[in-house]
Amino acid sequence: MAVYTDVSFEELTGLLAGYDVGVPQSFKGIAEGVENSNFYLQTANGDYILTLYEKRVREVDLPFFLGLLEHLAARGIACPVPLRDRNGAQWTTLNRRPAALLTFLHGLSLRRPDVVHCAEAGDALAALHAAGEDFPVPRANALGIASWRELANAVSGEADNVQPDTRSLIGEALEFLEPNWPKALPTGVIHADLFPDNVLFMKGKVSGLIDFYFACNDLPAYDLAVMLNAWCFESDGFNVTKARALTQAYRRRRSLSDAEIEALPALATGAALRFLLTRLYDLIHHDPMALVRPRDPREFVKRLRFHRSVKDASAYGIA
Amino acid sequence: MAVYTDVSFEELTGLLAGYDVGVPQSFKGIAEGVENSNFYLQTANGDYILTLYEKRVREVDLPFFLGLLEHLAARGIACPVPLRDRNGAQWTTLNRRPAALLTFLHGLSLRRPDVVHCAEAGDALAALHAAGEDFPVPRANALGIASWRELANAVSGEADNVQPDTRSLIGEALEFLEPNWPKALPTGVIHADLFPDNVLFMKGKVSGLIDFYFACNDLPAYDLAVMLNAWCFESDGFNVTKARALTQAYRRRRSLSDAEIEALPALATGAALRFLLTRLYDLIHHDPMALVRPRDPREFVKRLRFHRSVKDASAYGIA
Q1: CATH of span B115-316
Q2: Using one digit for the tens of pLDDT, what is the confidence trace for A70-95?
Q3: Size of interface A-B (CB pairs under 8 A)
Q4: Do B128 and B209 meet the contact criterion of CB atoms below 8 Å apart?
């Protein structure tokens, strides 16, 4: 939520000389995404986002991220589209960082999405999964189940200081998940972080999906499980009406197999654990000079406990 | 350069219900200004900035700041204009903070303004001084000469750790300035912080002046002295050609009296001292959890030494 690397007018002008976007009219650093520097750019031709990739996004992953956005947009998904420069490149270098110019999406994210928004977002996730099916570039999930044990070890000393009994909760969830993680489910391109922050709405309809920098190849049903965590909990608990609306809308566009449905409690447990672990890690290893405030991990303690209490997918409104 | 206070879609919608600006289409936190939370807002009607005033800007000063912007805009100055809500108010409350909706100005600030830009900016400063002449609300300069001794005391213990001999330089400058500060110069509304950051350009012309939250009643010639510090130094020293261009353009629109010209070396010394002191203070008292990186005070050590070496206003290109 900050600008790490400054870009001067002169640097911007030099960059834009490589693109066919016209003369800049406004240029502002914006508080968007995690750990990249983002700028809002208006030119005579339209609105754009300039992203400078800071250390968390590796240049070796840009053919996946930027290629995926172009691929999805060509299939009708409302996502930022990287512009190609006059040489056809999807990114360049600015201030010693990889930099891409992307289309700006209109719309606003919601802090408190209602049931109708959950359905719209579930439909958008299914459309994303369908559009990603023939994307050929692979990228492993760096924050998938294979990473959780190491993350758990890195936070184990401090976890109970954040909330009592968190360490044992994490250990128990890992002991359950490692032998029970589904092995034979369909795989595909997933967003892996489709929180309400990353879905823009206009007049009640999804107008854009953003922040694809956790996207990877993994289980589409796990992506749905991330959304059950991100969209359906309220301060006083899990809202099964939202979950039903979300999953029904998803299934109208992409069917879920019996195996995917059966796996949902484990997948949702895993998704809650993933966000609990990374939030704990970010909190414990927080650089006080960093410009990003760490997010509270504790809500995912509650969510993890909920999923561990679930008997089957009916708890998520799936008949 | 950050967003301190979040504003949700729902809070935004509630706020906009009080204004006649149409439906929101985009809303992004932007990295603008110092220690306020700023958001870029697009609606069907146009582009706006929503500012939430954090602790540095006191609500008691808003009639001055917002009234001044409306006053200046009515006299042709390209500055942000606060919208009045349906009740005629220039600000409201959002998330327990005073909040104002202002017009968004197009244009880009320059990191390395050239001679022509210095002339344009000097002309804009004179126009600002002329337009402010009949603004009736008073505001004292909280960072004027009366404040410098206290600031100097607050940084004296650490100043030499930032750069050797800075403490004695500050002491010497204060000893010179306190008895020699001009007493009988014209006063008026000044911007007091017109750095290149705060001047937007389009096609080589000034398209906007922004960030008026240091504006106050003080000496217009001191405002010009701030600009000599902010626009005319380069990494290898003072560029008198830029100073000549800036002051000549200023004087074409607003004449300088002999007394103002004679006072320029003292005023420029004072301006350098003011920014040295506040940057030292911000660096020494920097909250590591703050989202603003402190700016380097050391360039103002050099500038202060330069002004102390100056014999008269001819050093600034004034014949």
Answers
A1: 3.90.1200.10
A2: 999 999 999 999 999 999 999 999 99
A3: 89
A4: yes
